[in-house]
Structures are given as structure tokens and as C-alpha cells.
Amino acid sequence: MTQTLQIVSGVDWLKERIEIIEDHTGAMRNIEEAVRSLKRSNTFEKLGGVEGAEFDNAQRGSRCTPGSRISLLAMLLAWANDFRSPHLFWLSGLAGTGKTTVSKTFCSQLNNRGLLGASFFCTLNELDKKDVYLIIPTLARILAEERPKFGDALEKILESDRACRNPTKMDLNEQYTKLILQPAERTFAADELLVLGVDALDECENKDAVRLFIAAILSQKPTIPLKFFLTSRPEISLRESFGTSTHHRWLRLHDIEASIVKADILLYLNHQFKCISRVYNHYRAKANWPPPEIQTIADVSGALFIIAATMVAYIATYSGNSLKRFQELGQPSANVQLSGIETLYSTILAEAFKDLDQEEADMIHSCLSLLVTAQRPVSVSDYAKLLRTDTSTIREAFKSLHSVVQIPDEGCDDALILIFHASFVDHLTSEKHHGKEWAIDRIAAHATTAEACFAVMDSMLCFGISGAETSYQSNDNQPKPLELASGLAYACTSWGDHVLYAGVTELFQQRMLEFVKTRKVLYWLEALSVLKNVKYAYNTLWAISQELTSTELGSLLNNIGDFVHNFQPAISHSAPHLYLSALPFYAAAGQPMQALLAFPSVPIIHHNLAHRQEVLKLQTKDVPLSVAFSPEGKYIVSGMRDHTIQLWNAQTGQPALEPIQGHTHFIVSVAFSPDGKYIVSGSDDSTIRLWDAQTGQPALETIEGQSVTSVAFSPDGKCIVSGSHDKTIRLWNTQTGQPVLEPIEGHTDSVRSVSFSPDGKYLVSGSEDKTIRLWDAQTGQPALKPMEGHTDLVTTVAISPDGKYIISGSLDNTIRLWDAQTGQPALESIEGQSVTSVAFSPDGKRIVSGSHGITIGLWDAQTGQYIVSGSYDKTIRLWDAQTRQSVLEPIESHTDSVRSAAFSPDGKYIVSGSHDKTIRLWDAQTGKPVLEPIEGHTDLVRSVSFSPDGKYLVSGSDDKTIRLWDAQTGQPALKPIEEQTGSVASVAFSPDGKYIVSGSYDKTIRLWNTQTGQSVLEPLEGHTYPVVSVGFSSDGKYIVSGSHDDTIRLWDAQTGQPVLEPIEVHSVTSAAFSPDGKYIVSGSYDKTIRLWDAQTGQPALKPIKGHTGLVESVAFSPDGKYIISGSHDKTIRLWDAQTGQAASEPIEGHTSWVRFVAFSPDGKYIVSGSHDKSIRLWDAQPGQPALEPMEGHTAAFSSDDKHIIPYSKDKAFQGWNIYQPQLAYQDLLFLHDYPTTALALDNEGWIKNSSGNLLLWIPPHFRDGLFLPRVCQIIGGDFEITKVELTNALYHGTNWLNGH
């Protein structure tokens, strides 16, 4: 019995435990579900945050009156329920025919039947609801929320498909495929009907995108019964989009039988007038409902519901006698009957202006002017602010216009004033109403609104207008949310548009000159920062400057636009840093305007300009195959080998847009349209595409063709010419994408290059058939005989700006100039490298060329006298064509083939694209070298070292030689040692200086006599892969070697015999002895540093971990207490040699792999060399800078600490004396004076302290040469040196406002 009770008790205990476990399990499941939900929510945020676009938004108007539109709705439901019906239905109708009402009712009925997937109602009144690129993402998000299985499939696609990283910027065809079709086909059953509704497509602004949207849906028929219901006005762009498609049904509302529409309108009016109590009660008392007036009003409305709705609104307005208005409009003789809505509008406006004094009439006219010109709907309060009155006056002015203008309720002054229908604005601004007291002249109205904007800005803009309380935080993280008064917000983001619409008159020029010459312009930028619309500044200022090209004001606007464009990241992120970061760096960048330099209590930037001919480098992720400037020179576009197009800021070298995607193969040619609004691209995928240069979105459906080699715009922008591998030239209409002519034939091989003449009358083409041909652009007929002379394929052609000459480049290593009138040679051929690209400067005086020889060439177009040549020796040289003597020193920068080159519009710069994955900008006038090289090696230099006495240098190279140099003169001290059969990866002197040890890719270690260069021992063999690191022990008795065969080996330096068994470790990159010879340290591909006992070969410590990239170089400090390591993670780390623990924070500053590290012999300094082509000198303990800049690539110390020797892949090296005069700034405070752990530079360019506070934003082209904490020196690299002085930077954080 006792045992039974114990068992029962045990069971109860077990049940309790199980219940507890189940409770915990349930809690865990809840947590997991919450995490999954949060993760999904974050993923779906990429689909945009459009809210209120669904059919059930009450602001979208009402549904059909019960009993009306019965047959139409029945037909639509029959289409939706029929599996065999087309997957798209287009309902079109004229303005006012009731499309949105029908759409809203139909969506409601579908929803009640479980057939509605999602809906999107477009409207001109809201930015996000007139953007075509937000429609499909929003539909997908709603579907995912309503149907979880669809959401699961969509989530997987968004997370796994790289093309979906930014769904709202995707090609519309890709949007439809990846966001709708693919998840739907994986989720919905074959018998599961679903309809997606999109209303008022015509209200989307980008008409080209609307065409692409329709084409995407028509071209891909779903495999499951998924349907689209679209409505719009029957605009020509939409009618053409549907064209001859057989994959859709359509109905025009205005074609429905008049009697049916009239009956529906009659039903609608009957219902609406019943709701006007005074009218309904009056006639019901007489038992006379419906009265005949309703029939009359229905007759006047015709087939337009908008007229009926407007008349109802006019009669119902509270400010008038509704019964009297009903009876007047219901009379058969009423004027409104004769001209429909036009007369109705005139009647309403006449009534509004009746019996007013002039002041009242002027206020209504001012309100209507603002209503017509406003760039977006504004609130009652904004009307009051802009018109310098109060809200009650605004409401009074609009009180008689409620039937045509939607006025917010009393007490809702922050709500927007809206028009019911766009036709009202057309009526107000129609020329036929000129002279009427209510008529609006658009130009005059814009001028008035522009002046109102200036007045608001004058009265409200001030220092600190942003409301930012601290400079340490971004705008989004301020203690209190930042907000501007809505009236000021409108003025700041619209004044420029109004000025442009009104015309840049002398009055406005004077107004703007006063604005930009004072601090007001800075306060305006501060306001735009809060509004997240800084780009409005440079787009507006540049646009106005184009209208004032030769004036002082035009130049000022252009320069300020450049300033904002270049410093947009800082200004947009944190408003205080307009003053604290943007202005100081702007002051250091050139000759800034005084208006932008009025804040003294900010950092001072000491920026040493490098003496180089390269103006800008654009770092790309892949090879640019084609480059072009925008017409105004603000942007550069590049066509890439990775199938993308990249737009760049030509001032800063930073991307201006996300990469433009759509092509599926190399992009071989890109060009801007003459007005700069569009980019055309030609690709090896056999397509030509047109893109909006502002958004990167497609502007036209893809033009299909053969494999495209070259594209160009006509001077008027109406046509695109393309050349192709199919031997033809084709001309395309930029509006429709349709061919303008039949293919132009004549070449007998691929057409490699095409271009228009400046007047647009001719086309020039170059071909692989070795000829150049000129064609009549109107007829496609030859204009001249083929131009022959090249002996290899013609790769590039261009016509001079005056149309007199044709230039051609060929793989026969020549450039030729031809007379465009006769086709005869105009100059002797210019000999050069294999030419891939040529272009004329805007003045026609010079020619730029790019070649396979890693060059950019510059030529005198009249004489050919000055020639720039390039070679695989990685230099560019300028020669006199008469004497063949060098005019300038070699220009060294590109490290691989130049594929394309072009002039900027002003002719000052040349842009080039190269196989070294960079785009570079060059000064076309100069060509000064950065360094004088020590020459001798014929391939890259991998290793250098000083002799112990500092008198000699030894170097090892991929040219398989070892060379000994006099360290004082740079002259060879011995003949090259040439016995190696592979690249020499590592060299080192013995402690007594008598021997050199070398490690080679031929898998051997060799010992050499420094006096004779002769081999001392037979090659030391044993490694099975390249030997990448060698060194002597401190007593000279042993040699250590590291190899890619995953071993470290120890050798007797006297006999060459192995001393230990190989030490096995993952692929070794570097190995070195400790100063006392007891230990060996190694670096490896496995990201670790390892310490070994040199006597036993056993590990002395556990692997030292910390780097996140392979460890390229390791070394001991002279006292043996520390190990230094350099890694591909761009950092240098210091470790305690006894414990393996980190001895300091990672040392950061290099912008690429750290290839080499070493201590100075006294242990005070660390030198590092990097793949970023710089050498940096660091204080081994945080301290002051040690010396002024030196230039080189990678380096080692001399034994006396007095010299550093850099070595590099450019086959040249040079030594510098590191003892320099004391710095002139010794009593000043600099950024690099701070402790290492105090500050850090993040990936966005922000200097932050340990608390994450924003201290300073560093522009991209200042970052590489920036002195950060612990940096003693930066040597070499393609950048300029920058030091940040903080002596006067007194006001920051919460005190930033005191710096005014």
C-alpha cells in the first residue's frame, strides 16, 4: 500500500514537472514567434511604408449608391469569378465618370466574397500614392499580412534574392515577378481566385513607369488564377500601353449606354438630395418627391458623375440657401445646362466673388493663386502664413467654394486644403477666361507665391532653426523630435520651383543674391536637414544657375549647390554638423565663399594637397567598361562589367545613386541625354535601356536588338543611335523605343563605335572591318565613301565639336584624324598604344584617348604635336611629336588597362575607366609625377631590407632577381642575383651583414654572399610550396622559413641542414625569430598568430586570435616583450609575447590589407605597409606625430632608426630620413593627440568617441590621409595628408549653439 501511494505521489510530482516544462516550452514558443514576427516585420519594411492606399480608406470617397451601377458591377464580378477570363481588366473613363466610386464598390464586393487580395488607390495629392514603384511592393506587403503562407514565401525571396535588396527601386518587371508572381505561385492553389485592384493609374506622375507597369503585368500571365483590375482615364500613354494586347479585357465607362448612366446618376442624385434636409423636407411636405428639378440636374450632368457631385456639393454648402440653389439649378433655362461643368464652375466662382469689396476679392484671388501653384497641398495654417493673414480669413475666403474645394472642418487648421477635381484648376487657368476677376495667370501666381516663400523664410529662419539640442546625436536621435513649422517647411522646399516657373527676373535675381550672400542660406540648409530634403538645395540651385550661366549670381548658386552636394551626408545626418563639419572641410578644400565661413569656433583643417595630376579616383567594385560626364559636369556615369550602371558625384567621387540594375550582361556603352535627364545604356545582353538620371528607374521599355557595342544620343535628344555586332547601325525614337529607320547596312564586320555630328545631320561609325563610315542621319544612306587606312579593327570614333573632323582609334596602335567633308586624312597618323577610346575636348583643340596600355592620351588636334602615351610599364608619358623627347615625367596611377576616356564639358578634366577597377579624374593641363623611382626591377618588388649598418638595401622581386643597392645614392651595389627560378618573396640580411637569405616561389631557400652575390650553399630544399618568409636568428646560426605548404622549418645557417622536424600550421604567411632566438612567431591564413619553441618546435602558447582576416606579417619587438601583427582586416595588433593577450586596442587607419609590419630597432615606432599603397608610422605607445609625410608603399626600418625603406608593386622604392624639423603646430591641439581608445572613425566617415557621440564628419577624399590617434606618419598612397586642429573647436555637444 505504501509503495502504491509512493508511486501515485511520484506520478503527481511528474505531472507537475511536465506541466512546468510545458509552460516553459509554451513561453519559449511565444518568444520564438515574437522574434519571427519582428524579423518578418523588419524584412517587410523594405517594401515601403505606404499607408491608407486600400479601398476602405474613408478619404477615398464614397461607394456607389445602392441600386446603381448594377449591370456594370455584375459584369466585373463575372470576370473575376471566371477562371478562363483574361488576367487583367482595364476600366477607363473620362474625368468625372465615376471610376473611383466603381472601383471602391467593386473592391468592397470582392472583399466580402474573399476574392480581394489587395488594393492600391493612387492619388495626385499624396507623394507616396502617385509613385508607380510603390504599388507592387505595397500590394505584396498587404497580401503577406492577409495571407501568411504568401508572407512566408515572400520573406524567403526578400532574404535570399540579392536583386530584392531594395524592392522599391527594382525594375517593375522584376518587382512583379519576384514580389507577386513567384510567392503567389508557390502559395496559392490552382482553384484559388484572387484579384488585385489598382485605381487611378493616370494620377501617377511618371508616365513612362506607368507604361512599364502595365507591360510587366501583360507580359507575364500567372500560372494560377491571379488577376489585376486597373482603372484610369483613357490617356494616350495608357492606351498605347495596352495596344494590341489580347491578354486583357477593357471597358470605357463613357461608352456605357447613356440611358443606363443617366439612370444611375438619377439614383445618385435622389439619394444625395434626400440627405439635404431643407430640400427633402420642402418637397416631401408637398408629397412631391422626387421633384422635377432632380431630372433637370441629371440631364445637365450627362454622363459625368463629377458634375452631379459638384452640383450637389454646391447646393449643400452651408454658406448659401440650399433650397434656392436647388430650385435655380433645377430650372430648364439655367445657364449651367448649356455647357456642363464649365458653366457650373463659372457659376460657383461668380457667386463667390459677388458683392465683395476689393480687399475680400483680392484675398479669394490670392487663395486661388496659391491653390493653383502649390507644389503640394498645404494646410489652412500654411495658407495663413504664406498669405500673411489668419486662419479665419482663409476660411472666410473659401466659404463659397466648398463645392469645388475641400476645406477642413473648423478646429482642424493643420489639415490640408484640397481640390475635388483637377478640372477646376484647368478652368481657373484657361486662357479663354482671361480678364475674369477669378481667372489665374500661372506665371504671375508663381511669382506671388515665390515672394511669399521668401517673406516666410526671411521672418523665420535663424541659427539653430533645426531645434537640435546637441551636436553629438543625429537628427533622428535628438532628445526631442525635430520639427519645423509647416509653413516654413513649405517655403524652404518650394521657393525655387516657384522662381523657375515664374522666370528668373531681375527682381528675383536681386532677392536671391541677398539670400545667398548672407548666413540665411546656411539657416535654410539647416532647415532642409530637419526636413530630410537637403538634395532640394543643390537640385534647385543648379537648375536656377543654368538660367544665369554668365552672371555672378549664377556662379554663386552653382558653387553653393556644389557645397551642399559634396557635404550632403553630414548635413542630412546631423544639422549641427553643417557648421561643425561641413564648413571647416569646405574652407580647406579651395576658395570658399565668405557667406559660408562665418563660424570661427570650429575645427581647422590642415590639408596638404598632393602634387599630382589625378583630380579624383572613383573606387568601383568591378571594371568600368564605359564612362561619360553629364552635360553640366556634375555627374559621371559608368557602365560596369558586373551588369550595373553607376552614377557618381563628379566632385566627391561618391555614388549618387544605388547601382542601376536591369541588364543581364556587360554594359559596354553609356551616355547622357543632352539635357542630362536620361542615361542610355547598351549591353552585351542585346538590349538598349533608357533610365531616369534622377531616380535610376527605367524611363522606357527595353529596346531589343542584337549584341550592342555602342550607343549615343542625338544632339536634340530625340533619337538614340546604336552599333552592333550584327554589322548594322540602328536609330531609335527615345519617346517610344521604336526604330526610326530600317537598319543601316554597309559595314562587313561588327560596328564597334557610333556617334552623331554636332548638328545631328550625320552619323559616324567605326567597324572591325577597319573602316570608318559617314551616314546621312535622315535617310540612313552613306554620305561619303568608306574611310580606309587603319590596318586593324577600328574601336572608337568621334566627330569634332565644329563638325569638321572625324577622329578614329584602332588596335593598329594609331589614332587618325579625317576631314569630315572629304573623308581624306587631315593629319599623319598618331602612333601610340592599342587605342580603345577617343574623344574631342569641348573646344575641339585636344583629343583624349584610352588604350590597352594602361594609358590616357592627350593630343593636339591641330598638329598632333603633343602626344601622351601609355605602356604596360604602368606609366603615362607626354612627348613632343617633333623631337620625340619626353615633355613631362611619367604619370603613374592606373594599374591596369584603360578601357574608356572622355572630357568634362568645360574641358578641364578627363575621366577614365580602367581594368584596375577604378575610375579616375585627371587634370588635362598637367602631368607631374609624385615620386622619382629607383628603377631596375622589371616586375613587382615583394621584399626589401636594410643591412645591419644601414649602408645597403636588398630587394626581392617577381622578376626572379635579388638586387643590392647603395642606400645613400640608390645606385646598384652589385649586379642582379639571378639564379632563382621563381619570384623572390622574402629577403633578409644576416646579423653580421655578410649574408643574404632569400625565399622563393621555386620552393627553395638560398644563402648569398653580400660582397660577391655568389651562392654560399646549395639551395635549401624541403618545402613543397612557395617560401614566403625567411629570417635569421639573432646569433646568425639559424634560418627560419615559412611556406604555403603549411609548415615552418628551421635550418642550420652553416650547413643548410634541417634542425627540427617541420612545424605544421595552416598556410604560413610570415615567420620570425624572437630577439633571444628562443621562440619563433608565425602568421597564417587561418587568422591566427602562433608562438613556437625554437628548440623543440612545440607550441609555446595557444593560438593568438583576434584578427578577422588572414595575418600577413608578424614581428617581435626588440626587447622580445611584444609581437606585432598586420592583417587583411586592415588592422595592426600588439600582443603580449608572454601571455598572448592583446596589449592595446587594434590600430586602425589603413584602408586596405596590411601587408607588412615592423618595429624600429629602439622599439619606439611601428611601421606598416598596406595594399592601400601607403606606409604609416605609428608610435608604439600613443603619443605625438613623429614626422612630416613621406611617400612610398611598404617599408622597413634601417638599423639606426634614421631611415625607412619602402617597397611596392610599382617596381620602385626610395629611402627617407625620418628625423625632420619640429612641427610648427607643437602648441596646438590636434585630433591625433587623443588617446587611441578615445576616438574611432566609422564606415560612414564619422569620428566618434567611446560613447558613440558624433564629433566630426570626414569627407571621403580626406579620410585616407587623415591623422587619427596614434598615427605618427602616413607615407605614400594616392591621397593627401589631413590634420584636424581642435584648438578653437570650443562649442560642441549641448553647447554647439554658443558657437554662433
Automatic annotation (TrEMBL):
UniProt repeat feature WD, residue ranges: 626-658, 660-701, 708-742, 744-785, 787-828, 835-869, 866-889, 891-932, 934-975, 977-1018, 1020-1061, 1068-1102, 1104-1145, 1147-1188
Boundaries of every Nephrocystin 3-like N-terminal domain copy: 78-233
Keyword entries, A-Z: Repeat, WD repeat
PROSITE patterns registered for this protein in UniProt: PIPLC_X_DOMAIN, WD_REPEATS_1, WD_REPEATS_2, WD_REPEATS_REGION
Family matches, as PANTHER family: F-BOX AND WD REPEAT DOMAIN CONTAINING 7 (PTHR19848:SF8), WD40 REPEAT PROTEIN (PTHR19848)
Full protein name: Nephrocystin 3-like N-terminal domain-containing protein
